[in-house]
Amino acid sequence: MLVSGGCWVGIDVSKQWLDVCITSQGTPFRVTNDVAGFTRIHRALQTQSVAGVVFEHTGQYSEPLWRWLRDVHVHPSLVHPNHISNYRKSGFSRAKTDRSDARLLAAFGEERRPRITLCRTATEQALHDLLHARRGVVNARIAAKQRMRASWSPELTQTHHEFMTSVTRQIQFLEQEITRTIASDPQTHYRADLLQSVKGIGLIRSALLIADLPELGTIDRKKIAMLVGLAPIANDSGQSSKPRFTAGGRSQIRSELVMAARTPRVDPAIRAHRAPLLMRHEHKVKSDTATARWLLTVLNAMIRDGLRWEETESAKNAAKEAQAA
Questions:
Q1: Was domain 7-112 assigned CATH 3.30.420.140?
Q2: What phi, psi does 316 have (nearest 5°)?
Q3: What are the average pLDDT values for consecutive 10-residue runs of the chain, which has 325 residues?
């Protein structure tokens, strides 16, 4: 359990080792990046009043530690490696070792006090793995389709066609597993039902929002937009006001929301919200981004309040505007 006013712990994660530093003034120690090392870290934390645990998000190397800490009710703060790199430079230091990185992470926690990163549940993790597998298979089918168009030999064309047929079966199997995984958990099924009430948010997009955006419905609209990378970032200096752009965030979710906003089969209320933006902005990208940000805030409110699409005020107002137009 985390204690308000306790010490901050920095953990530098690598493939084989974990370097741990309790407080920025402590002495780092090294453990293995496995269950035995996790247990040793937990024993060390039990003797301290811990305010937070900080480590960088390094994908497959950090996720086992993340899940293990969640199971023992110690919720860590995962930070982007770029943030730690910039924090190191702000201290006018260029030295970088595993031990110094652990101490730097602890100092970052003491000064910045980063928020706790929500860990995926077992169902959300299963959905994440299935979606990742499906994305790889879909990319393989696209590549095979392009090769088949460029092939000059009937034998090669037949080979590519057979490969695409096999890949299509794999995609169908993965989609069936995604459906079964969603149905196996009542809470996940309830959230997916709310999201899929929006025309343009189907099985895959709802599963992506559930698996890769567990914060949906738990934070306000400004924070969720910044988290996904749909919030405009100010770039003003003195009397000059430069154009604002979006950057960072969770690119996969951002691209899916933009596609949902611009698809012809989208809900009429979303089209009605996008139409005046298309007339106002010179580039379609700006109107698509603004519509995706609006759609994200509505989805966030739907999950927070337990409302379906047709029950939200935003959808009703947009529908009235469309009818009036």
A1: yes
A2: -65, -45
A3: 76 94 92 94 88 88 87 86 89 83 93 84 91 94 88 85 92 96 95 92 94 91 91 81 80 91 80 83 82 93 90 66 60
